[in-house]
Amino acid sequence: MERTFVILKPNAVRRGLIGEILKRFEQRGIKIVGLKFLWMTKEQCEKLYEPHLGKPFYNELVEFMMGGPVVAIVLEAPRVIEMVRHIVGATDPLKAEAGTIRGEFALTVTKNLIHASDSLENAQREMSIFFTEDEIINYNLDI
Ligand code: CMP
Fold it and tell me: What is the ipTM metric for this complex?
């Protein structure tokens, strides 16, 4: 079964959107298998955004992500990487379709509320920054 990694960014927490966002995954039948509420360390932040090191938005992004607590989540479902990115919407909220999380609630690219892995390789890399394998919970969903 495929897994993906998601972070609810500090503005999602500060705006009281944790429940709203989790609801959208749960109501779609996606299983939450990892869940942590934390304040990211500089090391975690630099590892997460290592592919963006040197880009013009990097410093602003790191500062923003370390400015408040976040929710780190591992989700499990068939084709969950693509499914979650579909539910989340385009990176730039201006381009995010109505009905997506960013399309409904986000205004700017940096404060786009949520990060979701874009590939199997990145999902594995990103979840390993925040979760050990025994922190991923194995159970069956009821129907
Ligand atoms: P995220 O999914 O967390 O992955 C990288 C983040 O960089 C992205 O969401 C945005 O918050 C942020 N970002 C800021 N500016 C840009 C940009 N011009 N292009 C892409 N990502 C950007």
Answer: 0.92
DSSP collapsed to 3 states, 24-91: HHHHCCCEEEEEEEECCCHHHHHHHCHHHCCCCCHHHHHHHHCCCCEEEEEEECCCHHHHHHHHHCCC
Contact 124 CB / ligand 1 (< 6 Å): no
pLDDT tens profile 4-38: 999 999 999 999 999 999 999 999 999 999 999 99
Q: Best substitution site from 50, 61, 119 to test ligand 1's pocket, by max atoms within 8 Å of Cβ?
A: 61
- Among 8, 11, 112, 117, the mutation site with the greatest number of ligand 1 atoms within 8 A of its Cβ is 112
Model pLDDT for residues 103-136, shown as the tens digit of each residue = 999 999 999 999 999 999 999 999 999 999 999 9
Domains of the chain (ranges plus CATH)? 3-38+70-135 (3.30.70.141)
Closest ligand 1 atom number to CA of residue 64? 11
Tokens in use for 21?
A: 């966002």
Ligand 1 closest atom vs CA 112? 11
pTM score, whole prediction: 0.96
